[in-house]
Write a structure and sequence with these properties.
Helix content of chain A: over 70%
Strand order of the largest sheet of chain B: 6-7-8-3-9-10
CATH topology of chain B: Rossmann fold
Structural class of chain A: mainly alpha
CATH superfamily of chain B: P-loop containing nucleotide triphosphate hydrolases
Largest interface: A-B, 37 and 42 residues
Number of strands of chain A: 0
Order of helices and strands of chain A: HHHHHHHHHH
Order of helices and strands of chain B: HEEEHEEHEHHHEHEHEEHH
Number of domains of chain A: 1
CATH architecture of chain B: 3-Layer(aba) Sandwich
Oligomer: heterodimer
Radius of gyration of chain A: 20 Å
CATH class of chain B: Alpha Beta
Number of helices of chain B: 10
Strand content of chain B: 15-25%
Largest sheet of chain A: none
Number of domains of chain B: 1
Helix content of chain B: 25-40%
Amino acid sequence: MTAAALRVRHELIGLGGVVERNWYLVKRYAWWEIAFFAWTVANSLTIVFIAKGIEATGGHVDINRLTTILLIGAVVWSYLGIVFEILVETVAWERWEGTIEYTFMAPLSRPVHLIGMGIFAVLYGIVRASLVFGAIAAMFHLHMPRANFVTAIVIVGIASVSFIGIGMMTAVLPLISPEKGTQFGFIGQGLMLVVSGVYYPVSVLPAFMQWIAKVSPANYALRGMRNAILDGAGVGAVWGDIWPLLVIGVVAVPLGLEIFRRGEIYAKRHGKLKRSG
Amino acid sequence: MTLAAPSIHDLIRVREAPAVEVHDLRKEFLRRDRNLGRFARKRRAAALKGVSFTVARGECVAILGQNGSGKSTLVRLLSTLLLHDGGSATVFGHDAFRETRAVRRLVNRVSVEASFFKKMSPEENLAYAARFYGMTPRETDVAIPEILAKVGFPTERRGEPMENLSRGMQQKVALARALLTSPVLLLLDEPTTGLDPRSKLEVQEFIREVRVEHDATILLCTHDLAEAEALAERIGVLDRGELLCLEPAAELLRRYDASTLEEAFFAATGRRLEDEEDDEDREVFA
């Protein structure tokens, strides 16, 4: 085997190791997983019941349609939250456990390390979001006769690349600021929630927020998925949402890696690449 | 094990170069004066002040120093976890700050804190660490029970969460983690601090074995004088970021006209090893 092939093999084994470790943690924290899942379902229900609440208070809405719109918002948002959270934990959890120095002094390239975290985040997020979607859709007897799930899956797949890229940018925050980094990551996530049209059309937002929404991948992912699930739109019909996702993804991943690289240099210069306490 | 194969050039360099060569190494950190409040300007505090030394291949060198003397900073610089502010450091001829990947393949460490994912088992923690060094599941299925048995860890407990294990057991797993990747340079940062006497002796015996069997070079940072004397060929005294001396124990005693290492340390630094550092600037740089 050539040196280059061995190097690739080594990186792939390391990437598998990152996914494997996260799986171990899911197993070892199984009760927390159940608690978080129950919390996500409960949280999504409180949002989805809004449609029935409007009718109960005299409003006239298509309950099935509005419930599905809200459910897609809640599920995509929980998916996005999982991807961000896991990527932010690349540093935060390792620092908390004290393993950060061993992981960061190991001969695995940082892009592979981060991409491994991203792959696990997407796999885990899709499984959990699908379970939440299925459970709530069954509870509300939602009818989605025209749903084009293939298009929805294509959109999730493409949007996930952008989410991973942006997640890498937020992952750097706990690296450069052990005390406040994770908190800033949550603030960033919250801002994206506001501008992305998770539960309402972006058109109702003030003009400056609509401008910010243009660079939020969640905005395009939500619109495309709603068109696919509610109106049965094919991949061609949602191209207007797919191409911005592709552009954001192509920019966000290299940018996220570069930001993380610079953050790591900063942390190494200022002695922040170490355990807490 | 299948780490990416080094080139012939690398192999020659590893064979011919000293294990560690440090020249005028300097590191500063920004520190805020606590007495001036939360928003006071930070100022530079030197953790290492122009440290120079060489460790030959296969040698065991101990560095003695109080807490805050710069021992851990030195280890973290050689582990590629810090960037220096001046001077140079090479590991088997590889620049520790520019050729980090090559250095990382050659180095592993054990520090005072065992540091594991506490809910995960020794087996899972070791597998995670080993993957980063290119070891496949098939390889670790064989290697992990072997290495755990070697460090005296009861292999039937390898599936239990780390949090259920004693401090001594955890430190044995930390040793196993470092050795699993067959490092040629082992950095030991107070590896036996906090262990009971029996565990301490077991760990020290294992360090001796590693030197013989793996032909490993060891840099041991400690404030345990007996440990330094028992394990190292040369002993250095690091005080407030300065390496005051580095020589065999007998020469150290002769130089300071002392009968024990403790006396020699006191003569060299004016302080006892177990005394806490009184300079706030130097408060545990690691």
